[in-house]
Design brief:
The structure is a homodimer.
Chain A: E1 32-36, E2 41-43, E3 51-57, E4 60-65, E5 71-77, E6 82-83, E7 94-97, E8 101-107, H1 108-117, H2 119-145, H3 148-161, E9 168-170, H4 175-182, H5 186-198, E10 202-204, E11 209-212, H6 215-225
Helix pairs in contact in A: 3-5, 3-6, 4-5
Chain A binds a DNA duplex through residues 147-148, 174-176, 184-188, 190-191, 193-194, 206-207.
DNA sequence: CGTCTTCTTGATCGCATTCAACGTGTGTGG
DNA sequence: CCACACACGTTGAATGCGATCAAGAAGACG
């Protein structure tokens, strides 16, 4: 299941073979599976790479490094999601395992041409790409126009939207990761958590586990920012 | 030619038939051409719409409106570019003509399936979508991690990169549009222009026409922000 | 000429950053 | 078991960048 996709797709029988998007499975050449420990880098920004990847299990962050040592996380990837697929030969971001990961590697060119050769798969894949595009575009609004509190609210709200069952959210990433995802500092994120707690909107079980105690309040503060969503 | 694409594609014979991406042309049913005057809205956020569009001529902005009246421009679209193509039935953003525009309308579903039925076209289109995705992701870094001056520098630098020939840049959009694109206010954008002028990096011919007089300084200030680009 | 929109400039305010110190949790070795 | 180290998280105080409020200048157009 994906980690932060606003536009969820039907991941029906995703156990036998990790799907590209919903029911599609790559007909590509048997791909190799690699394992990464938490903290390991999968590829680097600017690196020539003929591969793209599908996450079988774990959590991956993809980010850009800035001159001053800063960092902007482009996206978190969860089970089944494709990443590292570029339109040019080199990787545009750095990818790093947040938790221990199992990853399927594909030859980029073969992957694309195998997508192209099946009409059904193409449609699914194009729709998946469009969904990813819009996920990214949603974040433009987030980064460009929201306050710190709204950013963190929205982040938690979307996480909860894809929660298995319980109301309890387990954060697999650090505060620093969240900050780098939201274009904030770690301190501001921490303060936002404190503020949300004080408002009674969330309850912190531990620093990594929390419950959204007032989902409606969070929802409305989110859509106070975005006009309709 | 596209307006703000970091990843440019070869728009070779784009005169006879506006291309999807490079040499591809939609085999879709003969599409109707519509004309919009500057300021007219092409579609609204949340609107049910079976169409997607290809800009023949003009400049279009796509944006999201916020509760407080604020606005985040998702993207500017220039000649030949596809917009309004979503993975669901409704439009996610509002599109508005900045200049007078000619626009080709396609049936969304037919458009996608016609893409899918030709292997060659699919590959081109997927690469185009990937380029658009990365264009959007680049902006995440911009919005999340850059100062106002860096945002405006980067904006102008990328505009110049797709300039026809001369060093002179003609801004077809207002300061407000630029602000809404960069997640700033109109005042801050204006001040940034002033600062760049004072630094001797740009020369303002008029408020809408300018020359990048020190491209290297601008370039380096941009890549002071991003580690490598 | 006047009106309207767009753009610029100045003064002040506030939110997020920065700098700094203090907690908290976890794992390691004595 | 405790002692210690180290990474992660929280909290406080001061600073600064961009927003806000406000006024005026510059174009565009009839």
């Amino acid at each position: 299941m994906s980690v932060l996709s606003t536009y969820q797709e039907n991941n029906s029988q995703s156990h036998s073979e990790p799907a590209v998007s919903g029911r599609v499975r790559p007909v590509t050449t048997p791909a190799s599976v690699k394992h990464y420990k938490a903290g390991e880098t999968i590829y680097f920004e600017g690196e020539e790479s003929p591969y793209c990847f599908q996450l079988i299990d774990g959590l991956v962050k993809e980010y850009n490094t800035l001159e001053d040592g800063g960092c902007q996380i482009i996206e978190f990837y969860g089970d089944g999601e494709i990443f590292g697929l570029t339109e040019i030969r080199e990787q545009l971001h750095t990818a790093e395992a947040i938790t221990d990961c199992s990853v399927k590697c594909f030859q980029r060119d073969r992957f694309i041409s195998s997508i192209a050769c099946s009409t059904d798969m193409t449609e699914q894949f194009v729709l998946n790409l469009l969904a990813r595009l819009h996920r990214s575009q949603d974040r433009l609004v987030m980064l460009g126009r929201m306050t710190a509190l709204q950013k963190v609210s929205t982040f938690l709200f979307r996480l909860s939207g894809m929660n298995d069952d319980s109301e309890e959210i387990h954060l697999k990433m650090t505060r620093q990761d969240i900050a780098d995802y939201l274009g904030l500092t770690i301190e501001t994120v921490s303060r936002a958590f404190g503020e949300l707690k004080k408002l009674g909107w969330i309850k912190l079980i531990s620093s990594r586990k929390l419950v959204l105690t007032d989902l409606e309040a969070i929802r409305s503060s989110v859509s106070e920012a975005t006009s309709l969503r």
